[in-house]
Design goal:
Layout lengths: L1 H13 L11 H11 L10 E2 L8 H21 L9 E11 L5 E7 L2 H6 L3 H10 L4 E2 L1 E3 L2 E3 L1 E11 L1
Antiparallel strand pairs: 1-4, 2-3, 2-7, 5-6
């Protein structure tokens, strides 16, 4: 009986290491979370008020792009261009929408012929973006976040 009691006491004392909780630093938890975080995707894309009634994430994204490109096209169509050559170009716009819903043009890649024929095209693009209706920013994990994206604009002037 004593031997059994001594054996049980020995097992109990050596197994106390099982009950020790390992401490994990907040930095370790943060690093693990950041590695599993998908930085390329948001929970909700930026939207205009007329796109809010749509239900799907992709539908809202498509509506946002359609409203944005439509607004830019309308603004450019109101302008009168005097050109010497036909212009057919795709302008790549790099846009940023801040966490406050402010849109800004970071970069525009315009062909040299287009710049020669329509020298104020960059100013017109800036003006069209400034006159956009209110934009609601993208949402990631319940927080409003800044997003960037590229938007191709096809210009065809005869």
């Amino acid at each position: 009986m004593r031997q059994t009691f001594a054996f049980m006491l020995l097992v109990l004392l050596t197994s106390c290491e099982y009950f020790n909780a390992k401490k994990v630093s907040p930095e370790t938890i943060l690093n693990e979370e950041l590695q599993s975080f998908n930085w390329e995707d948001v929970d909700e894309y930026p939207i205009f008020s007329q796109c809010e009634s749509l239900s799907g994430k992709q539908e809202k994204k498509q509506c946002f792009i359609e409203v944005l490109t439509g607004h830019i096209f309308e603004h450019l169509q109101d302008e009168i261009f005097v050109i010497t050559q036909d212009v057919g170009d795709t302008i790549d716009l790099k846009l940023q929408i801040s966490e406050k819903g402010v849109i800004s043009l970071l970069e525009s890649r315009v062909d040299s012929l287009t710049l020669q024929e329509i020298p104020g095209i960059n100013d017109l693009l800036h003006e069209s973006l400034e006159s956009l209706p209110e934009i609601f920013p993208a949402i990631k994990r319940g927080q409003q976040v800044t997003t960037e994206f590229k938007l191709p604009i096809v210009i065809h002037v005869e």
